[in-house]
Amino acid sequence: MKLEAKNVNFFYGDFHALKDINMIIEENSVTAFIGPSGCGKSTFLRLFNRMNDLITDTHLDGECLVGGQNIYDKSVSVDELRKTVGMVFQKPNPFPKSIYENVAYGLRVNGVKDKAIIEETVVKSLQQSALWGEVKDKLKKSAYALSGGQQQRLCIARALAVSPSVILMDEPASALDPISTSKIEELIFELKNQYTVVIVTHNMQQAARVSDKTGFFMLGEMIEYADTKKIFLNPDKEQTQNYITGRFG
Amino acid sequence: MKQAIIFWLFRVMSFAVVAILFSIIGFIVFRGIGAISWEFLTSEPTDGMTKGGIFPAIVGTFYLVIGSMLVAFPIGVMSGIYMNEYAGNNFFVKIIRIMTNNLGGIPSIVFGLFGMSLFVNKLNFGDSIIAGSLTLGLLALPLIIRVTEEALKSIPDSYRHGSLALGATKLQTIGRVVLPAAFPNIMTGLILSIGRVSGETAPILFTAAAYFLPKLPSSIYDQVMALPYHLYVIATSGTDLEATRPMAYGTALVLITIVLIMNLIANFLRRKFSK
């Protein structure tokens, strides 16, 4: 599904966190948001599954559209939205349940009772997240028996199990070692065949490796948004150039 | 040098605490063990409570504990959930929290008086299991609310966010992720409050406890004997205080054993689940 932001302004209390952002994110692509800490890229990401609703005293102006529908419209059910727009968090956050139950969770809260369907989906999701081979003999074990990287792939499987169209990833590899990171990156590359993937990252090499388009954010503004190649080889704006070459203060 | 003296003082004090605890328990065991027999545990008091056992008091305490937990557990857990998961940290909740803490500090005899005037007289339950259970339930409520709140507070928000991000509703998130994770700690609180409730005398003095009642209750509107009150009676106002002294210690030993076992179970649960 296509994502779109129209004149988005976002406030934490009086703090103007996002300023006049307009952006179109194409479906079945990987889009990376880069920028220094506190630039608003994670805030912007969380607008698309309304996770910012959980923070009190925030305020949004403008429109966020998912598949052409303004998701902040009163008629939109937040729970339904979050089934369409899945999310993977910075720190792996599996539930204190078994590996199997973690992946089955999204189906169970959706009221799916058919054991065969649940089992099939669990297996498929674990295969998609490239975790199946490592966990197929210990599905009943606690998710916390897995390594950090495996836990993160479990969280990806958990998100895939509810068959979303969009997957938001908030620095999904920042807490992981290099090998786990490269596994997650390969996975992201695979996922774009079926999903619209948006990833926030601090790691510019990562953005360069996995994404088709990159948006550079600074101080709440979107400075530049273009093909990843262009951003990294020949950006239009000087600020972008400074940031990606590390000259940014 | 000065430090050494101070640390030494601390050490002596902490050993003193242990010593006091063990001497109390040792004293009760030493004086009471002789009275304990199968007959003592399973028969009724006879001969003006100078002979026989304490079976009705054990059963009575059992009923009162079950009754009070049926009252306090659902109310306490639901309030705890409301306060931690729904209400946010507004003025209203702060007031409730302060009130709850104050409620926990009220002397238990005051609960007894309140229970008597409301449940026994106003609602006309009479001296009964139900009046005693309600009174003990009120007494246990602050503890259960506190423990529930603390247990829920210790569950990281990342679980909640993970669940919500999968499209689960808030209620599903609480029911399927937050509560199961907090459950062992809530159970610990429940068991601790069972220990507390089973040893309380004052709240049941005017609401449930019978001086002498050799038959078992047949409904929740019946009076019952209860261990702490029975102990009080045979230690202070029995028909032959000297002759029943061993029985008093025997009763104390049974009571203390029940409370200790409850605390041990609570500890065990906490350890087992908080890996």
Features:
heterodimer, A: 249 residues, alpha/beta, Rossmann fold, 6-stranded mixed sheet, 4-stranded antiparallel sheet, 37% helix, globular, B: 275 residues, mainly alpha, MetI-like fold, two-stranded antiparallel sheet
How would you characterize the overall build of this protein?
The complex is a heterodimer of chains A (249) and B (275). With 249 residues, chain A is α/β, with parallel strands linked by helices. Chain A has a single domain, classed as Rossmann fold (3-Layer(aba) Sandwich). Helix content of chain A is 37%, strand content 26%. Chain A has ten helices and ten strands. A six-stranded mixed sheet of chain A has the order 6-7-8-3-9-10, sandwiched between helices. In chain A, strands 2-1-4-5 form a four-stranded antiparallel sheet, covered by helices on one side. In chain A, α3 crosses α4, α3 runs parallel beside α6 and α4 packs across α6. Chain A is globular and about 55 Å long. The N and C termini of chain A lie far apart (37 Å). The model of chain A has no long low-confidence stretch (mean pLDDT 92). Chain B has a two-stranded antiparallel ribbon. Chain B contains eleven helices and two strands, in the order ααββααααααααα. The longest helix of chain B has 33 residues. Chain B has one domain: MetI-like (MetI-like fold), CATH 1.10.3720.10. By secondary structure, chain B is an all-alpha fold. In chain B, α4 crosses α6. In chain B, 76% of the residues lie in helices and 1% in strands. In chain B, a hairpin with a 4-residue loop joins β1 and β2. At the A-B interface, α2, α3 and α6 of A face α7 and α8 of B.
